[in-house]
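SUBJECT: A protein chain and its fold
Encoding: whole-number codes for local backbone shapes
RECORD BEGINS BELOW THIS LINE
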Amino acid sequence: MKTTVLACCTLAALLAIAPRVTFAHHGAAAYDMSKSITLEGTVTSLDWNNPHCLLHFDAKNDKGEMLHWTIELYNPLWMTRAGWTRTSLKSGDPITITFHGTKSGAPNGYIRDGDGKLTFNSKELGFHQAGDERTNER
């Protein structure tokens, strides 16, 4: 009887979390992966959280209006292995960044393997680990 109750509880717990695992966010459907955007701006913050680090910065659009952008980066473990730390960029740092924008035109973006580039103090901060075979994928 005890084994049956334990088995039922375990099954119920697995069924409860299965939809969250199955329908997890993985992909870039909201982004226009056929075009890249390059902007010069000023960092407002770097969120160092799972599932993705987020870079927030201000930059002027082609009309001269200041927009607040949010760029989806990799997860903290990947970023650490690529040489980043949670203090690699600080509020006020000037940057030049290349990324994929949204299809809707909202001020959000995505860094994808081999496509993203961020320059700070004339030095490029990489997004790839040495020997990573995905850096040449498009």
The helical segments are 2-22, 76-81.
